[in-house]
């Protein structure tokens, strides 16, 4: 059994006003995506890393691979117009067996812990399809122009990455989505839509996604403290 990690890096990060995509912004002289890649490089369970990127950043990722000695990066490929298509492109480049493990992780979740990563892999080996998520702790409401309703937070989870699947489940889900022109916001949506059951592994507030300028500033402060 092999374990592959796919790190889609095709997003533009439009909510952060920066001339380059947010995953390439440097924090303490190191690109955000490099923090994420470093976790997978250091994890003993990972065999290969595939990175789908925008065409204009293919050479830049090659430089990052060389600079940080990311020896587990086996392929840097052109991504698609949507995250889903980038992951599908990556899947088509590997010669995986049905029971091999595929991990998909956001390039801009740089504080993923090795513990969460290894727990999600172990659960996927047993169950086949896993999402990392955290339970909602705050009071939740659903608000429209005239109504305000409270939602039972015991049933609400915030989905993170990594999302981990055996190859057979993920490729089947991707092919079914392609057949009906279904585009999901993440891989778990495709897997559920294809009729598979998902298991949950507990995530962490530290494993947040850098989406806004506030997130970026928070990450900078955390990196400063860690150093």
Would you write up a description of this structure?
The protein is an alpha/beta fold. A seven-stranded mixed beta sheet has the order 5-4-1-6-10-7-11, with helices on both faces. A two-stranded antiparallel sheet has the order 2-3. It has a two-stranded antiparallel ribbon with strand order 8-9. The longest helix is centred in the middle third of the chain and has 14 residues. The model has no long low-confidence stretch (mean pLDDT 94). A hairpin with a 4-residue loop joins strand 8 and strand 9. It starts with a strand and ends with a helix. It is 34% helix and 23% strand. It has one domain: Spore Coat Polysaccharide Biosynthesis Protein SpsA, Chain A. The protein is built from seven helices and eleven strands.
The CA-CA distance between the termini, in Å, is 36 Å
Low-pLDDT segments: none
Number of contiguous helices? 7
* Overall pLDDT score: 94
Cα-atom Rg, whole angstroms? 18 Å
Structural class designation = alpha/beta
The topology string of helices and strands comes to EEEHEHEHEHEEEEHHEH
The gross shape turns out to be globular
Helix content: 25-40%
CATH topology grouping? Spore Coat Polysaccharide Biosynthesis Protein SpsA, Chain A
* CATH class group: Alpha Beta
- Biggest sheet architecture: 7 strands, mixed
Descriptive terms for the model:
single chain, 227 residues, alpha/beta, Spore Coat Polysaccharide Biosynthesis Protein SpsA, Chain A, seven-stranded mixed β-sheet, two-stranded antiparallel sheet, 7 helices, 34% helix
């Amino acid at each position: 059994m092999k374990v592959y990690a796919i790190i889609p890096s095709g997003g533009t990060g439009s909510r952060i006003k920066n001339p380059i995509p947010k995953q390439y912004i440097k924090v303490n002289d190191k690109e955000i995506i490099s923090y994420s890649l470093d976790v997978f490089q250091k994890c003993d369970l990972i065999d290969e890393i595939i990175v789908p990127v925008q065409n204009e950043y293919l050479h830049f990722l090659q430089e990052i691979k060389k600079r940080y000695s990311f020896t587990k990066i086996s392929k840097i490929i052109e991504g698609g117009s949507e995250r889903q298509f980038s992951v599908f492109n990556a899947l088509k480049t590997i010669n995986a067996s049905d029971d091999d493990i595929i991990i998909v992780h956001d390039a801009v979740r740089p504080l993923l812990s090795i513990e969460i990563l290894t727990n999600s892999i172990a659960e996927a080996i047993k169950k086949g399809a896993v999402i990392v998520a955290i339970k909602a702790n705050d009071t939740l409401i659903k608000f429209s122009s005239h109504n305000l309703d409270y939602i039972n937070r015991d049933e609400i989870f915030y989905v993170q990455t990594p999302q981990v699947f055996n190859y057979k489940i993920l490729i089947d889900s991707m092919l079914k989505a392609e057949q009906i022109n279904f585009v999901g916001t993440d891989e778990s949506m495709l897997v559920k839509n294809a009729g598979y059951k998902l298991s949950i592994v507990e995530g962490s507030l530290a494993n947040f996604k850098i989406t806004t300028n506030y997130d970026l500033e928070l990450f900078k402060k955390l990196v400063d403290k860690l150093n």
